């Protein structure tokens, strides 16, 4: 075994980068300091023995002489003591240090070896971290969003203060709990399917779900989710969520209100058609009565020739069949009050609506022109609602032209495809829109007709918006107005993007 001499130990202590100062156990005076301590504090080996506490210590009250002596006394009594101490160098620089005093018995006397290291940078970093943590806590305290991190097994490994507040639960009740126990429907299968942990395919996902608070109340949450891995800290699914219960309830009420308005609007449209339909039915009914009365008169006179009687009855039957077809068309329109979204050709919807438009046109002596696209215009829609939009716009145009000269009573309906959209336009030759009102016509309860309630065009805008489309109006030259709406064609990228956005929002 190698034998070390006194000089060897001296040279090793001199070579240490750790600062070392030797104090006498009894007097606490400085006996010696190694090179690292001398270079740090700026005093020579000869200067150290004469130094007192005020000569090499910060003047702050927490580093007063009594505190330093107590620390060294504790080390002398117990063998070792640690303190945070602020030394002052000869040039006035202060060095915040962690100092460890250890009692050691030498051949000639007992001494206290004080080892200290500069912790200024560490303490500055700790203070900055404490400030950052404090700021973050204050910033997040009143946030409307909460943060939860759930590991792959579904257990909560982190929850923010705002998250606890939104969940209505204490932090100790959330940490370590299985998050799915709070949800009305398990959320973890959705997370695993849509938020991959693989860094190469990692992305975010947004959805809504319902949770139950500690008080038993159901809440709707909107959450953005992604997978996170914070080195040596946490990893798992991060949920940034907020309570959207009031918003969901408002949306539900709005949908209910829209359904009620649509329901009333359909019957309002039927009311507008009532007089036209009555007029249309009066003709076959009157003809039927005349034919039957003629046949009855011939029978009453014992008319020998059966052919006129047969002709009269057959003609009456044809008129009854005509009336039956009119009634059937009305019934088929009215009973389709609720219908799911289906794939349909916009041209077919126009053709289905054209019968009712033509009845209104005949009553007002308005010419109807159809200029439909030669190619199909496939759209995803509720056919009855899109038909309602067409009827509302067309009926408004017919009423606008009803009192104008006959050469200005032409209604033209066109369809076409443009920029991945199906477009329907209704052109009239009326008096046009006042410029001041052109931007307000789709607002609720605005009407340009005497006695109008303004529901029709507002309803049209609501229906078209629900179908991911737009609606607009503009004056024509030299006179007239064009109303038009567009909806995405089913095969278009725009349609697929908007449908995907609708599914995420729902």
Detailed description of the structure:
With 506 residues, the chain is α+β, with helices and mostly antiparallel strands. The protein has four domains: 6-121, Beta-Lactamase (2-Layer Sandwich), CATH 3.30.450.20; 142-243, PAS domain (Beta-Lactamase); 247-338, Signal transduction histidine kinase, dimerisation/phosphotransfer (DHp) domain (Helix Hairpins, Orthogonal Bundle), CATH 1.10.287.130; 339-506, Histidine kinase-like ATPase, C-terminal domain (Heat Shock Protein 90, 2-Layer Sandwich), CATH 3.30.565.10. It is built from 13 helices and 17 strands. It has helices at residues 6-15, 35-41, 65-78, 120-141, 161-167, 171-174, 188-194, 245-300, 306-335, 346-364, 383-401, 455-466, 493-505, and strands at residues 19-24, 30-33, 80-88, 94-105, 110-118, 145-150, 156-159, 205-212, 218-229, 235-243, 342-345, 367-371, 378-381, 410-418, 421-427, 470-475, 481-488. β8 and β9 (218-229) form a beta hairpin. It starts with 5 loop residues before the first helix and ends with a helix.
């Amino acid at each position: 075994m190698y034998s070390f001499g006194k000089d060897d130990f001296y040279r090793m202590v001199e070579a240490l980068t750790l600062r070392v100062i030797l104090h006498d156990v009894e007097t606490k005076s400085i006996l010696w300091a190694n090179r690292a301590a001398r270079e740090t504090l700026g005093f020579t080996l000869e200067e150290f023995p004469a130094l007192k506490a005020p000569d090499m210590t910060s003047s702050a009250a927490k580093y007063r002489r009594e505190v330093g002596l107590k620390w060294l006394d504790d080390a002398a009594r117990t063998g070792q003591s640690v303190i945070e101490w602020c030394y002052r160098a000869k040039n006035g620089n202060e060095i915040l240090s962690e100092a460890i005093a250890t009692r050691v018995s030498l051949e000639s006397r007992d001494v206290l070896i004080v080892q200290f290291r500069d912790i200024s940078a560490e303490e500055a970093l700790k203070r900055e971290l404490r400030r950052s943590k404090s700021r973050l806590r204050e910033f997040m305290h009143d946030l409307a969003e909460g943060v939860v991190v759930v590991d792959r097994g579904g257990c909560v490994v982190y929850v923010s203060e705002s998250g606890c507040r939104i969940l209505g639960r204490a932090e100790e009740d959330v940490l370590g709990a299985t998050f799915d126990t709070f949800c009305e429907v398990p959320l973890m299968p959705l997370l695993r399917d849509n938020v991959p942990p693989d860094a190469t395919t990692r992305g975010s996902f947004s959805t809504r779900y319902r949770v139950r608070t500690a008080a038993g109340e159901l809440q709707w949450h909107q959450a953005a989710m992604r997978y996170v891995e914070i080195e040596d800290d946490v990893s798992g699914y991060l949920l940034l969520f907020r309570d959207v219960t009031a918003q969901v309830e408002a949306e539900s009420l709005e949908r209910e209100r829209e359904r009620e308005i649509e329901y009333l609007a359909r019957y309002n449209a039927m009311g507008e058609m009532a007089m036209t339909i009555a007029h249309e039915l009066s003709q076959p009914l009157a003809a039927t009565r005349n034919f039957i009365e003629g046949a009855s008169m011939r029978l009453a006179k014992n008319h020998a020739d059966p052919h006129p009687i047969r002709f009269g009855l057959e003609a009456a039957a044809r008129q009854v069949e005509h009336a039956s077809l009119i009634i059937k068309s009305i019934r088929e329109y009215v009973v389709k009050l609720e219908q799911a979204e289906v794939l349909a050709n916009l041209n077919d919807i126009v053709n289905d609506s054209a019968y009712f438009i033509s009845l209104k046109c005949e009553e007002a002596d308005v010419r109807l022109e159809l200029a439909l696209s030669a190619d199909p215009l496939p759209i995803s829609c509720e056919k009855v609602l899109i038909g309602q939009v067409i009827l509302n716009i067309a009926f408004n145009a017919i009423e606008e032209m009803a009192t104008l000269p006959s050469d200005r009573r032409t209604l033209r309906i066109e369809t076409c495809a443009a920029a991945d959209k199906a477009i329907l336009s209704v052109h009239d030759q009326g008096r046009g829109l006042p410029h001041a009102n052109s931007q307000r016509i789709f607002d609720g309860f605005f009407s340009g007709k005497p006695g109008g309630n303004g529901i029709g065009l507002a309803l049209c805008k609501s229906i078209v918006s629900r179908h991911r489309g737009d609606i607009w109006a503009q004056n024509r030259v030299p006179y007239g107005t064009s109303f038009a709406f567009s909806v995405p064609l089913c095969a278009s990228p725009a349609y697929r993007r908007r449908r995907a956005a609708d599914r995420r929002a729902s």
